[in-house]
């Protein structure tokens, strides 16, 4: 039984712990950090430089990294830091070509009274609702064929808030009313997990089953043995990830480790958002133990699906009956096999049973499969190098003396980044844009 | 009108010599040569610049196998051309600058094309460069180099003559989604040839319009009537909408455009016929499913594998 929240704040348990979660793709690492949410205490600050306590070793004094230039301006230093942040994000490992793309996710939101805690502004509860909304929008943007359901944990029960649906607007509507979701009582991990598991029972084997828990409490109030539920989740191949708002709990960590999910404890508002949004890119498929040679080994969760790409009929066409609601409508989609008129895609054709998706739905996830190679930071300007960026065709920034050696963090001192394939140079803005939004190298195509 | 933002137009000219040659050989009344195309487009560009003093333009050319930024307003002051060009009292200097630079750059690039006349144009390159440029121009954090403070309303116009290149399906879709994120409308004017499935989708998904020319010799009229209005005006004026949008995709194995496809559940690669192994992610599909699609017993599998094995798209 973990300590009560109020005890933790009062005690001097200001310890940090760095734990690497061995993700199966070896890519994502989380820093689980458990500490009281109070401001750093003054008595600790003096020990910062010495080999004192282990929690101070990783404490970076950000103000030391910023240096004024000759003119006393901070602009260069700030730009430098921004560029580093960008590069760090971009240099995160790519690869892992096998990813689950037809996803099903249940979000378990803790609605216990601990969510009223004000350590995150305005309250944990309000922040969670706000982030969940942003998360859902972004999630559907990247996983257009996925479905999301929401379950709340309140008063010792699991409470279905939103049914599994592929429509982001419907889901957003279910969590739009704050007053209906007001936190109360104790959370129950087991009840909510069982509910999530049973709601995903009917799914075909090729789709992923994922649970994302936003957990603010340090207790769970369960009717039975939660380890049985964990075992059941493992056997059902449900992947459970937890974002804890208070501190690390053994049961949460175990749950994530055993089911292949990610675990993280939010340090502050921004970190909470980062942890949450890490769950957006599709997870890599659990690779078989022998990867290289037996690449052709059969995977039970894979299947070949037959899909139809419809023709869209515009609003201006003559009204006709749709097969799904038998209503007169102008707008619709034509099934390519039986030419039945459907109201919306993606769906299954009611007449011939063909799965109808619009090809842009599929295409949205292709950039996960064929990522642009990371650009290399150029350290010097070659003689024949062009004066303008290969992407935006604007002039490169004038090289300036950087205050600190940028090569370690992958920042180019001359502000140029080169594509390993087409050997063209790009500015740092285009570098970020190409890798995070565009997903096409302007030079190679 | 005073509230409308200044608009930035990114014009992408499809300059495939082969297609333009074919276009000029059309029967009379329909023939449109490259030279007359360029004069009409220059007039359109001038009218865009004339609409509002702050309006900016950038012009990209998609040549065989490459794409070039021909002109862009913000950077024009740096180029030495406008200082050397003789002043003409009878023309408005900005028009003159645009016209000279664009036409001379097109001629330069056309001269340098030697053997690759047949190869597909660098439309994707032009699209992605245009988006990179728009990203730089609208992003306030990096706006220091460009002196303007009012919000920009960027849009794109593609003047296309080439047929669909199904090899570039994925990059084109990626650029479309990037344009969606930047809220850039992509308009497409199909000047010559068959309808482009991908460009139709581009216009449909970004909220632009796709117009195929009926009367090729009236190009300028089409351009002015359909594409000159900024997005704030489009709510008011009757704007051409496209009737049917073809939402088909290109299969990964033969790059054919298909309406019913076989899709790998792991990576969503599309195939035009059932395959035993996904060529993208190397997933092996269950025999049961393959049988159901009439693929045949696994003995015949070898044939299909060799066909699809090396067909991973770029």
From TrEMBL, chain A:
Keywords: DNA damage, DNA repair, Metal-binding, Nucleus, Transcription, Transcription regulation, Zinc, Zinc-finger. Gene3D superfamilies: von Willebrand factor, type A domain (3.40.50.410), Zinc/RING finger domain, C3HC4 (zinc finger) (3.30.40.10). Residues 11-24 have a biased composition (Acidic residues). Pfam families: C1_4, Ssl1. Residues 35-44 have a biased composition (Basic and acidic residues). GO terms for biological process: DNA-templated transcription; nucleotide-excision repair; regulation of transcription by RNA polymerase II. Component of the general transcription and DNA repair factor IIH (TFIIH) core complex, which is involved in general and transcription-coupled nucleotide excision repair (NER) of damaged DNA and, when complexed to TFIIK, in RNA transcription by RNA polymerase II. This is General transcription and DNA repair factor IIH.
Automatic annotation (TrEMBL), chain B:
The keyword Nucleus applies. It is found in: Nucleus. It comes from Hydnum rufescens UP504. The keyword Transcription applies. Component of the 7-subunit TFIIH core complex composed of XPB/SSL2, XPD/RAD3, SSL1, TFB1, TFB2, TFB4 and TFB5, which is active in NER. The core complex associates with the 3-subunit CTD-kinase module TFIIK composed of CCL1, KIN28 and TFB3 to form the 10-subunit holoenzyme (holo-TFIIH) active in transcription. GO terms for biological process: nucleotide-excision repair; regulation of DNA-templated transcription. Keywords: DNA damage, DNA repair, Metal-binding, Nucleus, Transcription, Transcription regulation, Zinc, Zinc-finger. Belongs to the TFB4 family. This is General transcription and DNA repair factor IIH subunit TFB4. GO terms for cellular component: transcription factor TFIIH core complex; transcription factor TFIIH holo complex. GO terms for molecular function: zinc ion binding. Component of the general transcription and DNA repair factor IIH (TFIIH) core complex, which is involved in general and transcription-coupled nucleotide excision repair (NER) of damaged DNA and, when complexed to TFIIK, in RNA transcription by RNA polymerase II. In NER, TFIIH acts by opening DNA around the lesion to allow the excision of the damaged oligonucleotide and its replacement by a new DNA fragment. In transcription, TFIIH has an essential role in transcription initiation. It comes from the Eukaryota.
